[in-house]
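Design request, tokens follow.
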């Protein structure tokens, strides 16, 4: 079913796709750029001079964000790549369990992960206090805070990108090239350096750029671990809440520019295709025959699984802590079920969970419908601006949540034609719109991947038998595209239900999401209440992930 500009169906689909793109993506971004140069009604660079002047923190925020992102890339690669080689090349006790658990850091919502690391490794966290008691010290031997805390949280959260990308690439690698290198006298290290790594370069570059962009966009870790340091994402938020709008807009444009530059690099590098990919089944895993080596591998796998699950266990454990029942002891002295009981007995405590599920659900449905329509245009469309449309559709994937939130506030603070003459800023609808904008590329990419695998001959056969375009779509395309479409919806729900970066700028009391409630409870402080909310949020995310893996095999549907 080729969509050509002379057909009415093409114009209907184009309107459905172009309207939200124009109203919530293109115009907000352009207006934010325009407003950043328009100060006191005049076109000038005063906002940028103020934000990046000698007495400002703009350059420090930019350099800190870039340096932490580079450090995150290095650390995540040092952890993720060796893990990928071990899981992809060696058979050892515990390998299957480790292969499942390696993606668990990605399932941990950012805010929940940061809070868990604070409870574990801050000054009065479990690990420093336990070491103090064990070693008989007067004070904890270390504390994880500041830039070091941000870096550790980022590495833990993002190393699975390297593991997943490289492990997938290793499965398609032509092992005969490595065997030929070693047969010609090259050792294992030289073969790795001269043969294997060059073939893995696309996967490594894609993971590197994705990790760098995600780290640059990070808000939760800098905001909670290093608020006394300057980052672009946190400085934008602080300038906004202090009504320093020109500086907030200038920093937003700079952060967006860096992110878009890396989106261009991703498009240039490509989707991680393995060079020299082989055919047939993957090579068998290397067997560890030595009992000592197997015991060592099993111990290492157990330690790895424990480290991966430690933040999850910590959050679950703290959910049973009584408010005020944990001060300076290694472990809390009082436990209770009251933290959970309050949420189910008192509606005001359970409301944030309902709000998050509703807003994430609305965004997921909107992403599914939009993704289906946009994928048809991008894959099957035949018109001059198709490349421009595809770029606009994928644009939100490169923009941090802070940038999207600020651009929506700037654009929708006043009524205009595309919003039906209504100002959306300050309403309960702006936050689910932000969720939809942030995750629309997930729906488009997952559905487009499924559509690209379909032979157009199926649609041509339906048309030759007398079926019209709508019947062909309903009876042929939709059943085949539904798994990919549903995969995008599930991923949107999983990510949006715990979203924090956009939520902190856009929520109102009537639609407070669970992430904001967790933040508020942790600052009261009510660690038990914050952890109980975190456990429910984590259960929602893991439940949705399990459903997606069980019924859709989502890993085969989406190609990052």
């Amino acid at each position: 079913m080729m969509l050509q500009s002379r057909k009415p169906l093409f114009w209907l689909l184009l309107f459905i796709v172009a309207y939200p793109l124009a109203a919530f993506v293109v115009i907000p971004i352009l207006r934010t750029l325009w407003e950043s140069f328009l100060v006191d009604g005049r076109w000038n660079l005063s906002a940028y001079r103020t934000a990046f002047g000698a007495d400002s923190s703009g350059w420090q925020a930019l350099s800190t964000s870039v340096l932490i992102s580079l450090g995150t890339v290095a650390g995540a690669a040092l952890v993720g790549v060796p893990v990928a080689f071990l899981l992809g090349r060696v058979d050892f006790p515990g390998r299957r369990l480790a292969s499942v658990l390696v993606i668990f850091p990605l399932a941990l919502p950012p805010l929940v992960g940061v809070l868990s690391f604070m409870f574990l490794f801050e000054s009065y966290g479990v690990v420093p206090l336990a070491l103090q008691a064990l070693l008989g010290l007067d004070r904890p031997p270390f504390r994880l805070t500041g830039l070091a805390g941000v870096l550790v949280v980022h590495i833990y959260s993002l190393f699975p990108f390297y593991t997943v990308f490289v492990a997938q690439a290793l499965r398609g690698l032509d092992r005969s090239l490595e065997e030929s290198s070693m047969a010609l006298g090259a050792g294992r290290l030289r073969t790795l350096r001269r043969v294997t790594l060059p073939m893995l370069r696309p996967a490594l570059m894609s993971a590197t750029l994705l990790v760098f962009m995600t780290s640059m966009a990070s808000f939760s870790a800098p905001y909670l671990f290093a608020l006394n340091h300057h980052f672009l994402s946190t400085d934008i938020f602080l300038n906004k809440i202090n009504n320093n709008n020109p500086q907030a807009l200038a920093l937003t444009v700079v952060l967006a520019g860096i992110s878009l530059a890396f989106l261009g690099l991703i498009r240039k590098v490509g989707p991680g295709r393995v060079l020299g990919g082989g055919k047939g089944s993957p090579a068998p895993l290397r067997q560890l025959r030595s009992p000592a080596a197997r015991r060592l591998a099993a111990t290492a796998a157990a330690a790895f699984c424990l480290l991966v699950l430690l933040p999850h266990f910590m959050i679950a454990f703290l959910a049973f802590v009584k408010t005020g029942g944990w001060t300076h002891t290694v472990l809390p002295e009082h436990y209770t079920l009251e933290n959970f009981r309050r949420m189910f007995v008192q509606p005001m405590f359970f409301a944030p969970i309902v709000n998050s599920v509703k807003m994430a659900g609305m965004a997921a449905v909107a992403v599914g419908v939009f993704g289906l329509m946009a994928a048809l245009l991008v894959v099957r469309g035949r018109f001059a601006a198709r490349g421009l449309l595809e770029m606009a559709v994928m644009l939100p994937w490169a923009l941090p949540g802070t940038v999207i939130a600020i651009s929506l506030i700037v654009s929708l603070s006043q009524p205009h034609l595309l919003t039906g003459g209504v100002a959306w800023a300050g309403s309960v609808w702006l936050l689910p719109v932000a969720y939809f904008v942030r995750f629309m590329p997930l729906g488009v990419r997952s559905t487009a991947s499924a559509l690209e695998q379909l032979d157009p001959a199926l649609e041509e056969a339906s048309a030759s038998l007398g079926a019209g375009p709508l019947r062909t779509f309903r009876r042929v395309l939709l059943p085949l595209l539904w798994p990919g479409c549903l995969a995008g919806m599930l991923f949107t729900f999983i990510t949006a239900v715990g979203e924090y970066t956009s939520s902190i700028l856009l929520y109102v009391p009537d639609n407070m999401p669970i992430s904001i409630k967790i933040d508020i409870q942790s600052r009261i402080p009510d660690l038990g209440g914050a952890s109980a909310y975190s456990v429910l949020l984590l259960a929602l995310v893991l439940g949705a992930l399990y459903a997606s893996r069980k019924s859709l095999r989502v890993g085969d549907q989406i190609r990052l």
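Comment from the thread starter after seeing the answer: thanks! The longest strand covers residues 3-4.
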